[in-house]
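Let's practice the habit of predicting before peeking. Look at the sequence and jot down your guess about where helices and strands might fall. Then scroll down.
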Amino acid sequence: MTGPNQEQWASCAYDVRAQLGEGPVWIAEEKALYFVDIVNKRVHRFEPGTGKATHFDAPDKVAFLLPLEDGTFLAGVKDGLYRFDSSDGSFRKEVDVEPDLPGNRLNDGCVDIYGRGWFGTMDDSEEAASGSLYSVRHEASGFVLRKHDTGYTVANGPAVSPDGRTLYACDTPSGNIYRFDIAADGNLVNKRVFVHLPEDKGYPDGVVTDCEGNVWSSTWGGGHVRCFTPEGVERFAVRVPATNVTKVAFGGPDRKTAYVTSARQNLSAGTLAGEPHAGSVFTFRSDKAGLPQHRIRLSA
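Done guessing? Here is the structure:
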């Protein structure tokens, strides 16, 4: 980290220039970063140590990858949750999500310490407040969804505290990051505003938590990753050389190497000329370790 009066900058790690890069996930066993390009319907895999990069075509817009304990992923595709296997690039639908809302798509997710997945949905045109927050568990009958909150235009985040008792989620256009308590029965209760980002700082996009419970929010239109204490006080911000910053994943052997996805979407030709690596994966060193990557538990 730099000194208190110096702004830290992220550097380009993988010059992929995705249209809408999102959902980075660090798989420690593979020493690899997985992430998606939602608009181009692709899953990317990148090994920072070797520079090796591969990609897989998804059946539709793909917004996130939630690791499963068998080594595959639960992928959030536009119309539902799919099992994605990186060994052969296959996608198999497991469950429909919001079949009554064809204008919606899935958007961003995470896995908590209990092996439960969380994700949001959004209006694909970013106009109607038709998005919701869900959890997903695997039971003997298969993957089971539970709706927890609704009324989001662009549901983002979500992230869960290290102890599994608090969930953070954004409604990006509102500028609000919300905080919920997770009750013993898995319900979300006591919704309140955790942080409101003023428009000049950009809009909260993906959020993640670290091992000490700090909340790291990427900023769409803000060009930064901002780190907040569990009390909602901003600790510092890291500058990213891209206007649209979407999400952080912590990787490397000590989980202190941050990888940051970004997007070229909605940027003018003039802006892109000044941000040639927009849409790429950036990196910086963190003073705090990220959480281990949890996996969705699979019932027998």
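How did you do? The two ends are 45 Å apart (CA to CA).
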